[in-house]
Amino acid sequence: MDNAFFKRVENAYRSVERLCPFRPSLGIVAGSGLSGALERIDGREIPFARIKRFPRPTVKGHPGLLKISDRAAMCGGRFHSYEGFSADEVVLPIALLHRLGVRTVVLTNAAGGIRKDLEPGTVALIRDHLNMTGLNPLKGSPPEERGSRFTDMTEAYSGGLRARIRSRYPDLPECVYAGLPGPSYETPAEIAMLEKLGADLVGMSTVLETIAARYLGMNVVGVSLVANRAAGTGGKPLSHADVIAAGGRLSSRMTDFLISLIDLLSEP
Ligand code: HPA
């Protein structure tokens, strides 16, 4: 991150500003196959293609669309480093949401379940993460006035907001999410290692976005939909098509959950 990055954010903001009057304080990033909630938001639809110098997602299940209502701004689609995007590009949507006035962001993803109780179909709150990507969006020269590059990550995923969500959904499991670079899935030995390191879930997104959001002073909520058992723990080989299909199959539950989070988190 550097001044050129924030110029790019400003350009993106100017494109969106012209197309949409709403400035909600809640943002949502929809992960693989989880964009169903877009249809349930009544707002302005802005394809990424209409946002100046904004990349386009290359992955199936990520439409590349921003939808903004008076209550929430939702990104249907995100950028992953395994698509060849830089860490800056991965966090561009987060910085754009921030520029639009978003102060709480819900990052959703599809993940593999490592911990025994995390069967496909489970929705889980992220309590903490392991950034195993080898990347960090704050590398470079982020402008000091926006915050210290030595960003505190002690409570990366807001404890207060997790408590608020769990008061409505007491059975929701809390998990540690390991973010890996992908795009190959893990070996069973890697999953065994991640388990020893304290990971409950594994995926290929979210962690860089959380770091950028915390640097920018936003509150972060992380929500994973368990799409599959992690490699070597479910007796089945993994495929992206299955992960997308699981997202699609299970997404009505996730969609209902996300829509209810809009009520819960946009309250003061
Ligand atoms: N591993 C990594 N990323 C994933 C997985 C997985 O098992 N499932 C969904 N995204």
Structure description:
With 268 residues, the chain is of the alpha/beta class. It is built from 6 helices and 9 strands, in the order αββββαββαβαβαβα. A 5-stranded mixed barrel has the order 5-8-7-6-9. It has a single domain (3-265), classed as Rossmann fold, CATH 3.40.50. Helix content is 32%, strand content 21%. The structure holds hypoxanthine (HPA). The site of hypoxanthine (HPA) has 13 residues, from β5, β8 and β9.
Any chance you could write out the topology, listing elements then pairs?
Layout: H1 3-19, E1 26-30, E2 44-47, E3 65-68, E4 73-76, H2 87-99, E5 104-113, E6 123-131, H3 159-168, E7 174-179, H4 188-196, E8 201-203, H5 207-215, E9 219-229, H6 240-266
Parallel strand pairs: 1-4, 1-5, 5-9, 6-7, 7-8
Antiparallel strand pairs: 2-3, 3-4, 5-8, 6-9
Helix pairs in contact: 1-2, 2-5
The structure holds hypoxanthine.
pLDDT < 50 stretches? none
Number of strands: 9
CATH class: Alpha Beta
Strands in their spatial order, largest beta sheet? 5-8-7-6-9
Mean pLDDT: 91
Using the CA coordinates, give the radius of gyration: 17 Å
Can you list the ligands bound to this structure? hypoxanthine
Could you say which structural class the secondary elements and strand pairing correspond to? alpha/beta
